[in-house]
Here is the input.
Amino acid sequence: MAKSGGNRSRLLLVLLLVSSLFLITLDLRGVNLAGAIRGSVASALSPVEKLFSNLFSPIGNLVGDIRNLGQANEKIEKLTKELDQLKSKEIMDEDTVGQLSQLRNVLDLAGRADYKIVAARVINRGSSATFKETITIDVGSSSGISKNMTVISDGGLVGVVKSVSSSTSIVMLMSDPTFKIGVRIAGTQSIGVLSGKGGNTYLLQLLDATGEIKVGDKLVARGSEGGRPFVPGVPVGTVIEVQSNTSAITQNADVKASANLNQIGIVAVVVSPPKGDPRDSLIPKPNPTVTVYVTPTPTPSPTK
Amino acid sequence: MSQLRVLNTSLFLFVIFLIQETIISRINFPINGFSLYLAALMVLLALEDRTGSLVFGFIGGVIMDFSVAADTPFGQWALVMTIMGYLFSINKESIGDFTETPILFIGFISFASGFCLLFFALIGTLLGEEMGGLIRNFGLIFANTLWTFLITPIFLPLIIRMRKVMLTSREK
Here is the structure.
């Protein structure tokens, strides 16, 4: 009896394994089974995601808030005093204000480069079912979005559209380890390839062995043919550390992204590239520093 | 195992999948996120009989393949979870020792979740996918295991209760 049960389990195992391998083979052979199913699931999930995005947008930083709980007691007294002052003012929703600020900045960035964009809200982030770094945005093919479009935020490059359903799109973030983009050091002709490392820093490999990288160098996207997947001129990041290795063929450097990928609420998808390359015009200008020269005067000696 | 229970459990898993994709994914956990779905599926697989572990492993994997953010071949999670279901089914007696003690059981579930992700990365590499750096992936797996260990006790009683509700009168 037990042997019969064991045989049945083994047969079931073989059947299920064959089914799984069959599904994988179909997918790898180009039968768009996954695309169709995932597209349907994305369309079905989209209203739910939008609903929860509105309801639970403050919970995104829940864990960080809990970590700072210890400091909260010290602030309670101070906050209580401030509360009275705040009551007299109109309290606006900070979340909305933050999103409006991001939207204004991203529109400003796109306007300077003459990009035609579609603004979008981030409604989900990542997935348990993948090692990929992705976000879900609330615009899809019905808004003119298609695969391989550049996604920017107020700071600069965010990623590239990876898949699209009618009302949502999945964006591969530039922090994904498989992400690569051709970049140029602003103000020079030195070009290189920037790769994601899965964290907050990125690896720049300069193609020109004689080129020079300095800490603080700004990087912009070189752009792809037809503006896909990357439009030219988008700020990508800033060099924070140069890796000195005399035996290496290429020069490498660590880069910090222009956009803060951990705190993006509003992004824009570039649906139409500019007619010309905006070159370095999108690099934020540094604030002018005021230098004050002081000439010390000799201390007057006390007179008798 | 009745068809009704297969249907009930599949629906239950799908609801948890929706919660995972719409709510849990939104939380920025340090290092990496926590997968409620993976943890819940591991609990179910650990409590099922041999056939149940296999069947719900496969179904649970197919549901994970629905994930819109997944950039992996459809069926990869189904393959991983079927094998996990098999591993659970052949170690039923050993797992029985864990289920007696809650802390050991939670530790076991956390380890199994981490092992699932590791196995998924391994299968992905064999299929020629770019899975990213080794250190990063180990970090992600470790963080997921840790979060599973910390958070599972909160919802474990609910999962066990829901499973009991879904059992047919004959299975009870």
